[in-house]
Amino acid sequence: MTDYQHPPASPEIVAKGLAGRATADLATSYELCRRMNAAHGRTYYFATRFLPRSKQRHVHALYGFARYADDLVDHMDLGWDAARRRKALEAWSQEFLASLKTGRTDEPVLVAVLHTVQELGIRHDDLRAFLDSMAMDLEITRYPTYEDLSHYVYGSAAVIGSMMLPVLGATHPRARERAMDLGVAFQLTNFLRDVAEDWDRGRIYLPLEDLEQFGVTEADFHARQVGPRFQRLLASEAERTRALYRRAEAGWAMLPPASQACIRIAHHLYREILDRIEAADWQVFHVRAAVPPTRKLAVAARELLRPSRP
């Protein structure tokens, strides 16, 4: 479960990690991760509040890990060029991977992340895969096929679903597959919602083979107009994403009852973003789809009243 909304990154967040380098105590580090989550992953943060309190800080830590790396890749508000972003990401990634071996870190965000990884036994290969995909974002701006995009999304989103399983307490042998389906569905939803923002960053996360199939060109992106061909393209991408949501539903019953409401809430709210993109006639350059707070509360109330399956 992850939420890549790509808003302008906070200079304060970067300053905390890249300047000073003072060791943060564990509580302070978790609080820093929580604030990052609350500020930038609002739907994700909202759903997390329906987990047992003892689990929430671990979600914040994993979000802090993902968000910090993503900020280093997309840090345009400080005027960083690609070379500087690459250097920062490489240094931060090396420090993190070293901390997995030593069990120690002085980096303020990573104090909580390392504690969560150690306490819950988060898979190290999932963490490395995520960092590999973040590095891809510094080099790759187009994906010729869905298979090519899937390679990126495996590291940027599928493994986030996998990392969440120890937090949620899932032990079912097929839970990882369904969690990864949901992570990818979240990411593909964000790609559709954020077409305009990604284009402004010079990226297209829709497979080029799909653009060709529907007769859409980069000139359509440049014109920032969604005509009938572009609408059909987006509708096709949305249907692919909805299929992943449907497949992920099987994972609900694979979770402990205490974790099911949180995931159902996140699942429904993210899937509703697709409905709102469609309701806006797919005008992704002019409308950024979002679920209003009142609707979030209504979905949460419904899912909290719904019996969880043991």
Structure description:
There is one protein chain. The chain is mainly α. The two termini are 21 Å apart. The chain has 2 domains: 133 residues, Farnesyl Diphosphate Synthase, CATH 1.10.600; 164 residues, Farnesyl Diphosphate Synthase (Orthogonal Bundle). The longest helix has 23 residues. It contains 15 helices and no strands.
Regions with little confidence, pLDDT below 50 for 5+ residues: 1-22
Please provide the ordered H/E string of secondary-structure elements.
HHHHHHHHHHHHHHH
Q: Regarding quaternary structure, how should these chains be classified?
A: single chain
Q: Total strand count, please? A: 0
The second-level CATH architecture of the largest domain is Orthogonal Bundle
Average residue-wise pLDDT = 89
